[in-house]
Design brief:
Layout: H1 2-9, H2 15-26, H3 32-45, H4 49-62, H5 65-90, H6 106-109, H7 115-129, H8 132-144, H9 149-178
Helix pairs in contact: 1-2, 1-4, 2-9, 3-4, 3-5, 3-7, 3-9, 5-7, 7-8, 7-9
Length: 179
């Protein structure tokens, strides 16, 4: 199983990550589609080739073709939106908030899967990318749709662990090359 491969690849100093990786994925109470869509979208957003290559096959096996595509779409659109909206929020000139974005975001309106799942995946990717505006927006949509805080938290727990695992494994790879 890919999860075991990732856990065994983590160095001893990252024991907490090993335990958390098993917990947030292996013991998740999320439905399969929400879980594996979150895992895939976050693996992509982590920018770690190792995390993505290990987890993508299992995600693909656990998702319908539509959900697989939608999870990748969530990672793609949020990669753009998180930079745009985070920048707009961080600029001190409030007039940027009055300008039309002019960026295509059609997939948000028609993701090809249940809108709640897509919103959950978008929230998780926004957590990795650190966009407060997007986090607030997606959390509000999820809460209005009746999603409880525990489910929202599950998504950003997965995001935080996968991001940390990717950063650790990628750093270890570079350190090993440097000998």
């Amino acid at each position: 199983m890919a999860l075991d491969t990732l856990k065994s690849a983590l160095p001893d100093y990252a024991k907490d990550l090993k335990l958390n990786l098993g917990s947030v994925i292996g013991n998740s109470e999320l439905p399969q589609q929400q879980l594996w869509g979150t895992v895939l979208a976050c693996a992509i957003a982590s920018r770690s080739p190792r995390v993505l290559s290990e987890l993508e096959p299992e995600a693909k096996a656990n998702l319908s073709p539509e959900a697989y595509t939608a999870a990748k779409s969530a990672a793609a659109i949020m990669a753009m939106n998180n930079v745009y909206y985070r920048t707009r929020h961080l600029l001190s000139d409030p007039e940027y908030n009055n300008l039309r974005a002019g960026l295509r975001m059609n997939v948000i309106g028609n993701p090809g899967v249940d809108k709640t799942d897509f919103e959950l995946w978008s929230l998780a990717v926004s957590a990795i990318n650190g966009c407060g505006m997007c986090l607030d927006s997606h959390e509000q949509v999820l809460r209005k749709a009746g999603v409880d805080r525990e489910t929202v938290q599950e998504a950003f727990k997965i995001a935080s662990v996968l991001q940390a695992v990717g950063a650790t494994l990628d750093a270890e790879s570079v350190l090993a090359e440097n000998g």
